[in-house]
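ARCHIVE CARD
Drawer: 12
Card no.: 0347
Subject: one protein chain, sequence and derived structure
Cross-reference: see card 0346
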Amino acid sequence: MYEDMHTSDELDAIKKFEEEKSREKDSEEPEFEGVVYQPEEDTYLLCDASDEFAFGNVLELGCGSGFISVEMAKNGLNVTACDINPDAIIHTKKLAESENVKVNVIESNLFESVADTFDTIIFNPPYLPEDKREPKGMMQVATTGGESGYELIESFFHEVHEYINKNGIILLLFSSLTNKDKVDEIISLHGYKSEIVREKQIFFETLYVYKIQRL
């Protein structure tokens, strides 16, 4: 589906654009070491929506640099941040300490090490379809959502009902490259409704932030 929508040259351009932006961010924050997904347009868009809608006990899955979790903690919310990447855990702890806020940071593959329930779950998942030419490693884990791009979102919805409070909300970011119709189908099949609360066109894709609640 992804390759049908975009030419090989466009796919290469998207990858090159994202790699260059990541290198720029890395050079801006030399105090943090390791391989960590740095704040990008998607991060800022999701953070803006989270500023408006997040409440109560907050979980950020795939916290990456910790930017959103720290911003939510600055808003006075009780925040838990998790990521599968050990470097992201170190990065988030250091950022929270430097900003003098409290964030509970745990290493977890999705909900694997999560024990509580939450009013708000924030998730900026890896959403790009697999590019078999891309080297294996943590940066691929941070950007690739599966063969078609939506598989990790699907895994998330298989489990999220155990961790979201009755009147809680999910703030989910994904891209038009992920297959929006398929994401809508996954959400509906698991008994949730969604509304677009942020949308932004960048490069060859459109970013969406959904606010999602139980039906």
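Annotation on reverse: The radius of gyration is 16 Å. The longest helix spans residues 8-28.
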